[in-house]
Write the structure tokens for this entry.
Amino acid sequence: MTTQPHDSQAGQIEVDWSWTSSDDDWIPPEIDTSRPSAARMYDYAIGGKDNYEVDRQAVHEVARLVPDFRTVALANRGFLIRAVREMAELGIDQFIDLGSGIPTSPNVHEVAQVFRPGARVVYVDNDPIVMTYNRALREPRTGVLALDHDLRRPQSLIDEPKLRNHLDLDRPIGLLMVAVLHFVRREMAVKVIEQYRRLLPEGSYLAISVVCADGTAPGVVERLEQVFQGSTTPFVARSASQVEQLFDGTRPLEPGVVDVTQWRNNEKPLPVRILGGVAQIS
Ligand SMILES: C[S@@+](CC[C@H](N)C(=O)[O-])C[C@H]1O[C@@H](n2cnc3c(N)ncnc32)[C@H](O)[C@@H]1O
């Protein structure tokens, strides 16, 4: 399926959910509905149907301080699309999307395949809901592999035979870590990125977006920490310099590591500041 990624005039993406197979009453047996999950909360925030009451309550808790939380989530999604487009235009036709989330459209493979028709994507997530919905998709997705894996284990991910069959690891990869590192401890994230940099072929690129405490409205980080405390993925806040540190040893493309609303875009800053950038990693 090749859907033209569409930015509205406001610079926000419209998400098309009509092609998913979800049924509002269906709860897959492996899903823990007693605690919110980041994947399902994000799904709810961007307008999806693959979430439960506990997730909606958690998003409403955040929305009491940030009524426009949906706009924040969509701004991040807009960054993801622009980052993939940029990498594809630079010649990248293989992507690993770490913390891919519940499948949505347009997704990474749809954007990449507009610019690189044979593009291949590996979606990676460790929340069982994500694999459940990847399996349940109505339409086969050409060039797509979905793996249930923890991004904090780079070596075992890159050694995974299914991934090696799907991608050519002698050619550059676009590695995406979009809106996921605020669920990974700070020192761990730095170490993990360093390992990916070492494992990926020369000429590979990295895209990161992550919540930044500096510039986020007062009280919001504390609220996020509180809400995610009870979830399957505790939330970790970072200062601007800690976000910069994630790009150590890389060569960020213009305009550098900036608010995602400003990355190859010109929107106003939002109450939750998400910094992002795309960088050549080797
Ligand atoms: C907020 S969603 C972001 C989805 C997508 N990357 C985007 O920006 O639109 C974060 C996702 O990261 C996943 N995640 C969190 N920790 C992870 C880990 N250690 N390994 C793999 N996935 C993880 C969550 O399950 C969730 O689906």
Notes: Residues 1-12, 19-23 have pLDDT under 50 and may be disordered. Strands lie at 94-98, 120-125, 144-148, 174-178, 205-211, 251-252, 258-259, 274-280. The CA atoms of residues 98 and 268 lie 27 Å apart. Residues 38-39, 42, 76-77, 80, 99-101, 124-127, 130, 150-152, 178-180, 183-184, 233 surround S-adenosylmethionine (CB under 6 Å).
